[in-house]
Write a structure and sequence with these properties.
single chain, alpha/beta, 6-stranded mixed barrel, 6 strands, 22% helix, 37% strand, globular
Length: 134
Amino acid sequence: MKSPIIREVKSLNMACDRIGNLLLTKFACNGARDTSIHIPATIVFWLLKHLPVNQDPNLPQPPGLPRIDQYDWEDPSVVRAYTVNCKQFHDAIRMTFAMEQGPDLTVLLNRSNVELMRQMMNAYSKDLIDLEVQ
């Protein structure tokens, strides 16, 4: 079993595929290269139901968003998340993504990045297909 990759996120960006079944998520990390993964719509909708909503009106905005280019969509090293496991702390959330290939990815998001992720996923939720809806 490969050791998981662990990254502290300073900012992130997301883009939806044309079909509406996943988000390309790019994490700008402290002290490491940017890391990208594909998050399926089922995980996005689950996270939207479970991520906390910001209650702090003075929450600072994360620094500049990493840029997503066509290369990021075509990069064969960007793999798809299979599941996610979250643990909430007082000022952060740790997300461990089990990946379909390669080592798992664990990211630590501060409250600003959690809110940024929640807002982006909410905005893209209109473009994604929720297969769990009956």
